[in-house]
């Protein structure tokens, strides 16, 4: 059985890893800790394929008794994840929108409701859906680089964060800060994000994984069962709200994304991104 | 169409204003920003007439497509608003109490639920109902003068803030601070109010309007529709609670204010205020 | 009638006191303030007998018109209260578990719902149920000694804090801090507890009772009726949740504590405590 007190990753034990197209996972069975790295250039955007791989990877780890915790980070420089892939929301069929949105929900339900200890090692910018992933972990460590920013900036694109993004955000930063940040679609530079409580800790980028492993060891020192029941008690209300309104939430997304005005502003945003390159 | 990026108030565009007895409103159509000034000496107390004018002014602006945001401030020195007018609660008929309380509710429902960006420029003390007005805005800037104080001090007069005052307060400062502040009926000097998160920013009094215009410009840089939907998502639960219990809340107020003990302490309080002059 | 403005405890007025086996109570009728001292060596653990005395003492004071506030502290050095007495949870009958858990609930319902002003003068460590007692007061002052710690550390023993411990905690420190602290079973040294908002104020140990009396005088300066209604408004939702689920909560406790794995870890914990001595 894995010892929670053993320094993670040190005396090298049998280690299983698997890699899909978009995400690479390495599980150190001696520590019980998996490291999940997003590797979908250029910006780890959350496409349908990415989200599907993400959910499957989480499910595999969740069902692996040798895995007790997962550190989520990016294999790309400067970016953690750019959030939902806008190409999935432009000029597609209703069926596609339905499948895509269900995959977004699925990812969040698995991550926010995970029985594993989840630590986000945010090693780059993390807007919108990228921020949601960080918010859904148990603990957030961010590289202290002020050029990296994080936030639910949906309002800047003329779109509205779904209620469960909002619920997750309020649970982390409280109502006043969430209200202002969501309305302004703020992207907070790392130091500001730390001040607001959006991330729990800042460390120099080169120390990020070391710190994440140390935090993970601290969380894994607790008996799993009590910790898991406690986590469920804290998050159940918000998880249940999406489960209860899942189909309605999909309908809302479809009706929103089908609007010509929204399609137009998403297309303009994509053009802008292309020109930036 | 108004440009949100244009510095507000500069190249002078057609500007509409209207003024009632108690409140003066100037709308700068080029920026889309209205300034609403309370001018009901001596202390901008919220009489039935004041509240009615306030609600009507908000409604006019809300329905004016040229108006996207409103800055609320006082035309009087040292006082933002002293809160509910106690003379409306003393020795009047049930019908009067009913009409008065409905006007208080109406004002809050309009302000807290406004689709406009609302910025409070708190340029003086702001107890009780005055504090509620500030709490109901999107952003609160206060003159840094420590002689100016703000808070829901109802308990000091032996009365209880209604549940929707409390809900609004908890949304801004969180449960612990609200619980203590409401029980003690605290009036927080500006620096303390800032520390508690009751106001978002302190500036020297002479910079207050300039700062409010700058903040407003920042908020107006966002597309209205997404910002409005986001605001609704954040505030709907609390707004709906009053809507659902409005008549009950009126009955509570009447039964409370009709008590001889309450009438007595309100009369004593008014005597004290008169002597102060 | 007691004057709230009189310095508490000074010109000695008629003073009633009563003492049971575990708790000593002194009521100063001139100030309206009772001091309740836990005196159950070695660590003021919350046995069935202790809890019963605590509830009865609170009830007596609550029904005594001369008493308006209570300061809760420990008569023992270095420890406020060690929390629930584990011997009550080991190798006992279902009937005993039922009676014990009902007593825990009863104590909390009386303390969190008290009409009196309640000030915790935390003069030593305060884990688990000891922390709950402090959290249930209106105000928490702690001796600034960093060797004293406080927190809901149930997860460390492999058990889960009940939902109403959690609700009380969230009301004090907010969701993010409660989530992390509960999952880690953290015991926060006094300075950290202060930083997190878990305690409101730190003072040198020798000034603790003086400060508690001063805070009490400040709270008693408010009219009782308005303050009590305000407190009820703030706490009712959380109190009602336990009242509505009381029997279910007892069943949960019994089914949990009856598990062989839990019995084993509680026995191990007790052995460890014995060896420490």
Automatic annotation (TrEMBL), chains A, B, C:
Keyword set includes Isomerase: yes
- Subcellular location as annotated: Mitochondrion matrix
Name the reaction it catalyses: (2E)-tetradecenoyl-CoA = (3Z)-tetradecenoyl-CoA; (3Z)-octenoyl-CoA = (2E)-octenoyl-CoA; a (3E)-enoyl-CoA = a 4-saturated (2E)-enoyl-CoA; (3Z)-dodecenoyl-CoA = (2E)-dodecenoyl-CoA
Q: Which SUPFAM superfamilies does the protein's record reference?
A: ClpP/crotonase (SSF52096)
Q: Which UniProt keywords apply?
A: Acetylation, Fatty acid metabolism, Isomerase, Lipid metabolism, Mitochondrion, Transit peptide
Quick check: keyword Glycoprotein in the entry?
no
Supply one GO BP term.
Answer: fatty acid beta-oxidation
Give, as in the UniProt entry, the pathway in which the protein acts.
Lipid metabolism; fatty acid beta-oxidation
Kindly give the InterPro entries that the UniProt entry links to this protein. Answer: ClpP/crotonase-like_dom_sf, Enoyl-CoA_hyd/isom_CS, Enoyl-CoA_hydra/iso
Q: Which GO terms describe its molecular function?
A: delta(3)-delta(2)-enoyl-CoA isomerase activity
Top enzyme class, one word, equals isomerase
Q: Name one Pfam family in it.
A: ECH_1
Question: Single GO cellular component annotation?
Answer: mitochondrial matrix
What EC numbers are recorded for this enzyme?
A: 5.3.3.8
Which PANTHER family does this one have? Answer: ENOYL-COA DELTA ISOMERASE 1, MITOCHONDRIAL, ENOYL-COA HYDRATASE-RELATED
The UniProt family comment states: Belongs to the enoyl-CoA hydratase/isomerase family.
- Please give the subunit comment from the record: Homotrimer.
> What exactly does this protein do?
Key enzyme of fatty acid beta-oxidation. Able to isomerize both 3-cis (3Z) and 3-trans (3E) double bonds into the 2-trans (2E) form in a range of enoyl-CoA species, with a preference for (3Z)-enoyl-CoAs over (3E)-enoyl-CoAs. The catalytic efficiency of this enzyme is not affected by the fatty acyl chain length.
What name has this protein been given in UniProt?
Enoyl-CoA delta isomerase 1, mitochondrial
